[in-house]
Write a structure and sequence with these properties.
Aspartate Aminotransferase, domain 2, alpha/beta, 7-stranded mixed sheet, binds pyridoxal-5'-phosphate, 401 residues, 4-stranded antiparallel sheet, 14% strand, Aspartate Aminotransferase, domain 1
C-alpha cells in the first residue's frame, strides 16, 4: 500500500514527549524538531498486529515467542549475512537501559569508557552515572565529512602519550554509535576494523549501539562491527531495536546481541535485576515490523531522502551562513551555525526565542558539538519547510538589526 507522509498527524495531547513537552523544554510556540521519533503514521501491518493483540485482553508479563526470535535472526541474516544464534539474544526495554547495564557489568568505579564526541547525550550519563569517567576521542572534520580519529583512539590507551598520571590505562570499554548520532556517518569497514582492533589490543569491550542501522540513505550500507571477525563478535555487544527504523520508540523494545557466553551471563544478571520488562505490545510490534514492514520502510526512507535534499537546497538558497553536514544514515541533520559567531547561550536563545524551533542544541552532545544543532527531519515536508522558514526569518532579522 501507499503511505501519505505529507499528511501531518496531530500529536498534541497524546502524551508525546516531542510535542507535549516542547513548551516546557524550549519555550512557548516552538516547532518541535528534536527528540528522535517520526511524525509519520507507522506501517499498517504493525497497527493491525497491535490491534489483534490488544483484543486478547490479557496483558501479563511477556517474553519473546519463538516466531519473534526467528523474525530477528532472519532479518540479521537477510540484512547483514550475520548468523546469530537465538541464545545470543537478550531483551531490554530500550537501548539506553542496555548501555547502563553494560557499563555496570564490565567496569569498576573509576574506570574509563571511550566516547567519540559529539555523540548521543545519554552515552555520557550511562558512563558517569555508573561511576566511570569518559575518555574523549573527538571526531575529526576532514573538510568534507566527519572521521574517527583512529590514532587518537589508540593514544588514549597509552598513558605516556595521553599525559594521564595514574599508570596503566583504565579504559575498559568503547561505546560506538553506528550510524553516528548526531553527525550521520555510517562507519566504513575500515573504520570499524580499526576500532575493533584497538579494543582487542587493549582488552576493551566494544558496545556498538546500532539502533539506527536500518535508516540508510542514498545507498549507504550498514555493517555491524561484530560481523567483521569472530574475535570482534566475541569481544562486542551489539544493541539493536525496531524503534528508530519503524517509529516504535514508545514501545521500548530492543534486543542485545551478546555472542560471548561470559559477557552474556554478566549482562543477563544486570538486566534481570534492573532493566525491567518489555510489554506484550513491544514484542508484537517488533515481529510485525520485521516481517511485514519493509514496504513502509522503503517508502519512508525515500521520503526522508527527499527531506534531506530539501534541507540542503533550502539552506544553500536561503541561509548560506549555515552548513548542512552530509548525512549517510538516520533522520537527524547536523546543522553548523558556527559562522554566526554566537556563544552557546546566544545560539540557544536564537533558536528557541527568535526562530521558535525546538532543536537538540549541539553542546549537549559533548565537545565538538558547540555551535551546532540537530534537526529531526522525520516530519511532513510542510513542517520541515515551516521550521526552516522560521530559522531563515530569524537570520534575516539578525541581519537587519
Ligand atoms: C544512538 C541512540 N541510542 C539509543 C537511543 C534510544 O534508545 P532507546 O529509546 O531504545 O532507549 C537513541 C535515540 O535517539 C539513539 O539515537
Amino acid at each position: 500500500m501507499n503511505y501519505d507522509f505529507d499528511r501531518g498527524i496531530e500529536r498534541h495531547n497524546t502524551g508525546s514527549v516531542k510535542w507535549d513537552q516542547a513548551t516546557e523544554t524550549f519555550g512557548e510556540g516552538v516547532l518541535p524538531m528534536w527528540i528522535a521519533d517520526m511524525d509519520f503514521p507507522i506501517a499498517r501491518p504493525i497497527t493491525e498486529a497491535l490491534v489483534r493483540r490488544a483484543q486478547h485482553e490479557c496483558y501479563g508479563y511477556s517474553c519473546p515467542q519463538l516466531s519473534t526470535i526467528e523474525a530477528i535472526t532472519e532479518r540479521l541474516w537477510k540484512n547483514y549475512h550475520w548468523k546469530v544464534d537465538p541464545d545470543w539474544l537478550l531483551f531490554t526495554p530500550g537501548v539506553v537501559p542496555a548501555l547502563h547495564a553494560a557499563v555496570r557489568s564490565f567496569t569498576s568505579p573509576g574506570d574509563e569508557v571511550v566516547l567519540q564526541s559529539p555523540v548521543y547525550y545519554p552515552f555520557w550519563s550511562a558512563v558517569r552515572e555508573n561511576g566511570c569517567h569518559v575518555a574523549i576521542n573527538q571526531l575529526q572534520w576532514n573538510g568534507a565529512k566527519y572521521e574517527m580519529d583512529i590514532q587518537g583512539l589508540d593514544n588514549l590507551f597509552q598513558p605516556a602519550v595521553s599525559g594521564m598520571s595514574h599508570g596503566p590505562s583504565r579504559i575498559r570499554m568503547i561505546i560506538l554509535s553506528n550510524p553516528h548520532n548526531p553527525v550521520g556517518r555510517v562507519w566504513t569497514r575500515d573504520e570499524l576494523r580499526a576500532v575493533g582492533e584497538t579494543a582487542l589490543a587493549h582488552d576493551a569491550i566494544v558496545v556498538s549501539d546500532e539502533i539506527h542501522c536500518e535508516l540508510m540513505l542514498n545507498g549507504a550500507r550498514h555493517v555491524p562491527l561484530a560481523t567483521l571477525s569472530p574475535e570482534f563478535e566475541q569481544g562486542s555487544i551489539t544493541c539493536m531495536a525496531p524503534s528508530k527504523t519503524f517509529n516504535l520508540a514508545g514501545l521500548a523494545t530492543s534486543f542485545i546481541i551478546v555472542p560471548n557466553p561470559r559477557l552474556r551471563a554478566a549482562m543477563q544478571r544486570r538486566i534481570s535485576g534492573s532493566a525491567g520488562n518489555i510489554s506484550p505490545f513491544g514484542y508484537v510490534a517488533l515481529e510485525a515490523a520485521f516481517r511485514d514492514g519493509d514496504d513502509w520502510l522503503t517508502q519512508v526512507l525515500h521520503y526522508i531522502e527527499g527531506n534531506v535534499t530539501y534541507v540542503q537546497l533550502f539552506v544553500r538558497d536561503h541561509m548560506p551562513q549555515v552548513k548542512v553536514t552530509p548525512i549517510e544514515g538516520t533522520y537527524l541533520v547536523w546543522l553548523d551555525f558556527r559562522a554566526l559567531g554566537m556563544s552557546t547561550p546566544q545560539l540557544s536563545d536564537f533558536l528557541r526565542a527568535q526562530a521558535k524551533v525546538g532543536l537538540d542544541e549541539g553542546y549537549v552532545f559533548g565537545p565538538g558539538g558547540e555551535g551546532f544543532a540537530r534537526m529531526n527531519i522525520a516530519c511532513p515536508r510542510t513542517t520541515l519547510q515551516e521550521g526552516l522558514n522560521r530559522i531563515a526569518g530569524a537570520l534575516a532579522r539578525l541581519d537587519t538589526n
